[in-house]
Amino acid sequence: MIRTNNCGELTAKNLDQVVILQGWVKKVRKLGGLTFLDLRDRYGYTQVVVEESQEALVKGIKPEYVLEVKGMVKARKAKNPEIPTGEIEVAAEIITVINPSALPPFVLDDDVEVSEETRLKYRYLDLRRPKMQHNLIMRAQVNHLIRNFLVDEQFLEIETPVFGKSTPEGARDFLVPSRLNRGKFYALPQSPQLFKQLLMIGGYDRYFQIVKCFRDEDLRIDRQPEFSQLDLEMSFATSEDVMNLTERLLKKILQVTKNIKINEPFLQISYQEAIDKYGVDKPDLRFDLPLKTLTSLFVNSENKLMQKFNQEKAEIRGIAIENQLLNKGQIKIFDEISAQFNLPSLGILKLENQTWTGGLASSLTPEEKNGLLQTFGLDQNAKATILIGGGKYHHVSHALGEIRNQAAKMFDLYQEPYKLLWVVDFPLFEFNAEENRYVAAHHPFTMPQTDFLPTFDIDQQNAIADAYDIVMNGFEIGGGSQRITDSEIQARMFKAIGLTPEQVKNNFGWFIEAYQYGAPYHAGLALGMDRIIMLLTGADSIRDVMAFPKNAHGIDVMSNAPDNVSDYQLEEVHLKLK
Ligand code: ASP
Fold it and tell me: 349 CA to middle of ligand 1, Å?
């Protein structure tokens, strides 16, 4: 027999209909002579009522049993306006146990406290919880929406290989030994970057793919060894075209999933402005709280901390948290962040009722205090805590940027639920001190901006890329660039990052060769789907928006992967040392 309805759809419109529901027992309870059980599936749950005379029907039935219930839809005496099926109940006539269930290791409700390890070990049970179902259902909806949107825009969904050669995205590769080719390895793709560029040469002018990418990095709340990108590339297109399309897509996603309308173009700020104002290259602009540079204010300061900073030629920077007087515990949290960047404890000043307190209160001059008020745009009557740090420009900015984010969380400073912006004008290179060379900041197929074309390979430090990142609520949710399609520029780019012609030939010869055969100009981007869904669902980690993620150590605790393999398997791939 098949179900006539799901467990989330019956309402007063269905009164007196005989229905068949199938699902899991969420709860069983007795009330006087009646037994109530809630039957759940991914659409919701429905109350089933069993008369005293029918009590045998529910004998032995426990939570998580899978049942089929046949009965009539009746109006409920006590209605539950919280759920769509709250007006009705099903009066059971026949109950069939499809399968019993062992006692689950945790109650499958949203508000039950259970460790993540246990949830991951029994992921298939965890997935029954409404919150997880909501997350994965939204994810499926967004994927669907993306496909419809891009297909309407003439994009083709084309798959690229998982077994391939290393792609230069700057992380470590996962390697797969080849049995048929002794001693050789495939690298799992960090992204389909090279293939999508070749598809442009192949004439598929608008490509996309929702694709797994693999990077062997340390894991964080927003990082997993395998993750999904919406990867896309457009020919005869500039950065602007890609950014424009991405904005329209993201606006649509927000509108459909959150009913949030964004009409105006996304804000664009330069990398330099992001660091200067917000300390990080992925600023959370749901709130303001800008960083200020205070170095010149304190050049001649008599204050010990400021003198120390001046001696070290440190940059002095600070933020002012308005309307808050921080207590010791809160300051300690910020000091710990500062310590993570190897910076000394923060200088603290508090102002209330025109009275200064805090560590720096007695040792700064009135002029210095007034200077601070002016810099932060505060008046004498303001109430605020000012935090001051010193160190190398990037260090102190980054530390204060983290503190800025933490302060917003601590004092709930958010003014809107979602804020999207572009960060542009990125440096083309980063200096890698360990290797003593410049490396590509995005990847080595990124075009320098036109102004830097003559000089990018002799003045790497100042070269700016034609690249863009899209940032949502303080997370980098994607990035891309205009690609190099000129073999001379590409050769200079490789030289600028210290690759010898030999290395270039061995690693990318096959790829560069393709550009001799008529390449259209092209640009593209990839969006991190896991992060986007995490932000849309309000999940705490990307693990909560993946069906079967790894734990923080990269382990699938359910199946215990990675695991040892047999000697035989090792021998087969020639990895066994004899
Ligand atoms: N492949 C790049 C990345 O994964 C995105 C792009 O440049 O299109 O970050």
Answer: 43
Tokens of residue 574, six digits: 């020639």
Q: What is the DSSP letter of 519?
A: P
Closest CA to 228 of 149, 142, 165, 154: 142
* Fold entry, domain 132-254+421-546: BirA Bifunctional Protein; domain 2 (3.30.930)
Q: What share of the chain is helix, strand, coil (3-state, %, to 5)?
A: 30, 25, 40
Buried-state track 319-356, b at ≥16 Cβ within 10 A, e below 16: bbbbebebeeebbeebbebbeebebbebbbbbbeeeeb
Q: Given the CA of residue 467, which atom of ligand 1 is nearest to it?
A: 7
> What do you get for the CA distance between the two ends of the chain, in Å?
60
pLDDT (0 to 100) of residue 577 = 60
Q: Say if residues 160 and 196 touch (Cβ distance below 8 Å).
A: yes
Q: How far is the CA of 197 from the centre of ligand 1 (A)?
A: 11
Give the global pTM. Answer: 0.94
- Ligand 1 atom with the shortest distance to the CA of 193: 1
- The alpha carbon of 461 and the centre of ligand 1 are apart by a number of angstroms equal to 22
- Residue 43 half-sphere exposure toward CB, CA atoms < 13 A: 13
Report the C-alpha gap between 50 and 72 in whole angstroms.
Answer: 11
Backbone region of residue 217 per phi and psi (left: phi > 0; alpha: psi in -120 to 50; beta: other values): beta
Tell me how far the alpha carbon of residue 282 lies from the centroid of ligand 1, in angstroms. 16
CA distances from 338 to 43, 242, 313, 351, 409 (A): 47, 38, 18, 22, 17
Q: Cα of 397 to ligand 1 centre, how many Å?
A: 26
Residue nearest to atom 7 of ligand 1 (CA): 480
Low-confidence ranges of the chain (pLDDT < 70): 1, 577-578
* Per-residue 3-state assignment (H helix, E strand, C coil) for 148-188: HHHHHCCCEECCCCCCECCCCCCCECCEEECCCCCCCEEEC
Residue-range domain boundaries for the chain: 12-99, 132-254+421-546, 287-415
- Give the number of other Cβ atoms within 10 Å of residue 203's Cβ: 9
Domain at 12-99, CATH homologous superfamily: Nucleic acid-binding proteins (2.40.50.140)
Name which of 116, 222, 106, 107 is nearest 557 in CA terms: 116
Which of 160, 166, 169, 230 to probe ligand 1 with, by most ligand atoms within 8 A of CB? 169
Q: How far is the CA of 489 from the centre of ligand 1 (A)?
A: 19
Ligand 1 contacts (CB < 6 A) are 169, 191, 193, 479-481, 524-526
- Helix (H) / strand (E) element for 21: namely strand 18-31
How far from chain centre, in Å, is Cα 560?
25
7: Cβ contacts below 8 Å, ≥ 6 apart: 21, 23, 39, 40, 41, 43, 44, 45, 46, 85
CATH fold of 287-415 reads: Gyrase A; domain 2 (3.30.1360)
* The one-letter amino acid at 347: G
